[in-house]
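Raw record, unedited: Galactose oxidase
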Amino acid sequence: MVRAVWTQLLSDTSIKRSSQTLTILGDNAYIYGGELRPREPVDSTVYSLPLNSNSPQPASLTTATDISQTSTSTTAPQPRVGSAATALANKLHIFSGRGGTAMAPIEENGSFWVFNSIDRAWTQLTPSDPDAPFPVGRSYHALTTNGTDTIYLHAGCPATGRLRDLWAFDVVTRRWRECAPAPGPARGGASIAFAEGKVYRMNGFDGTSEQGGAVDVYDPVADAWSTIAYVADGVSGPRARSVGCLLAVRLQGRPTLVTMFGEHDPSSLGHQGAGKMLGDVWVLDLEVGRWVLVEVEGVQPEPRGWFAADVLEGSTSSVVVHGGLAESNERLGDVWRLELEG
């Protein structure tokens, strides 16, 4: 049995949005990008929220004045939605997304935008060989990192269709390597996480339906995929969904994946509307390969998709969640902390 408690940290109109990124560096969460109105990217401001993760009490924010913003007068990536982000070497890395008047995938020739939390400035990390293959621009893809020198990029939506590719970027050599593609179908809105030396992938939307019933596992040493199958009935395992999250945590010292929320049935209005949103939280014990529905106590966030989440640094079992799209089609500006107890 796994229990959890939600604590609301903040709710403010300045950070209302969906399809954004949230990345935790040290004691701060950094929010970038997204949209408040469909297909209209917000600006390139980075919002910093102090989380006080060293406090013995649950992290808390008291007022909106705790939110700080970067200056938009310096070099910064163009506004975008559906980007993906990950933290490595105490820096925020984002890749592509959609933007401009045509809301087309932003093509930056395999480059990352990197935000340094110390000097609060952006730089661009470009591949060392401009003629070598690189992943095309896309949106609603996923990023994760091995925590030392490699960023993994998976799937998403290019100019047309969807992808199921997997790429690895070595930040030391600044080179991309195309890995074995993930099991089909191709999809956007999938979730990936790195744990125990492997990349884990689940869920997503293939253009017709949400995917579920499988956690696909990539082994970098073998350059091969395997699959952990489960019954996606909401009883034995989480129901099919997209635009949720997948995060690596440890519960009682055991390697665990946590997934939550997401869209279960797409809206008939497509990106202009909200479908059926989920509000559940599940954990997968990687040693036994079994899903458990988390029992949540007290007040909890409303169901949502298209949100952003990350694991709190300095804690093995705390997750921070921000914003997203509610089933009412309203963009949310709340921030919550989830404390998991194995």
